[in-house]
Amino acid sequence: MTINRRDLALSTLVVPALAVSALALTTPALAASADDEAVAKKVEAFRLAQIAADPKALGALCADEVSYSHSNGKVEDKATFITNATDGKSKFLSIAYQDPTIRVVGPAAIVRFHWVAEQEMTADGKKVPTNLHILMNWQKQGDEWKLLSRAATKL
């Protein structure tokens, strides 16, 4: 195989161009995985705040415009959701978010999972299991991911 100056000159132009193209292809993927990880941490923080019935933590995780929909069709704004989630009428004994998926699309994240929980009613000690499919939409506001909407469907 004979390599002339023209072939050598072309190879010195092509190799750096390929390297730049490869970097351009991997950089968005790296950013997406960082956002995926950040959203996953917020979702886990939300689960823990629900178990703890922590109004301050729930408030910090929710956008002011949050629309929180329950499996019975009841929709709550931020203040109502936090009040009802922390009123002491019941407490969560367990909440598991099974088979979660996170898809980041620009400044939004679509999160789905299977919710399996057990709640105890304070008044009578009755234990109530729940089995739901959850859809959460998170929005990047500045540097923070905030819960913008949540919907639940009974399984």
Largest sheet: 6 strands, mixed
What's the arrangement of strands in the largest beta sheet? Answer: 2-1-6-5-4-3
Total domain units: 1
User: What would CATH call the class?
Assistant: Alpha Beta
The CATH topology name reads Nuclear Transport Factor 2, Chain: A
List how many beta strands DSSP finds: 6
Principal-axis shape equals globular
Assign the CATH architecture.
Roll
Quote the beta fraction: 35-45%
Low-confidence stretches: 10-28
Describe this structure in words.
This protein has helices at residues 5-52, 55-61, 78-85, and strands at residues 62-69, 75-76, 90-105, 108-121, 127-141, 144-154. It is of the alpha+beta class. It has one domain: Nuclear Transport Factor 2, Chain: A (Roll), CATH 3.10.450.50. The chain has a six-stranded mixed β-sheet. A hairpin with a 2-residue loop joins strand 5 and strand 6 (144-154). Helix 1 packs antiparallel against helix 2. It is globular. The termini are far apart.
Structure described in brief:
With 155 residues, the protein is α+β, with helices and mostly antiparallel strands.
List the helices and strands and how they pair.
Layout: H1 5-52, H2 55-61, E1 62-69, E2 75-76, H3 78-85, E3 90-105, E4 108-121, E5 127-141, E6 144-154
Parallel strand pairs: 1-6
Antiparallel strand pairs: 1-2, 3-4, 4-5, 5-6
Core attributes:
155 residues; alpha+beta; Nuclear Transport Factor 2, Chain: A; 3 helices; 6 strands; 41% helix; globular
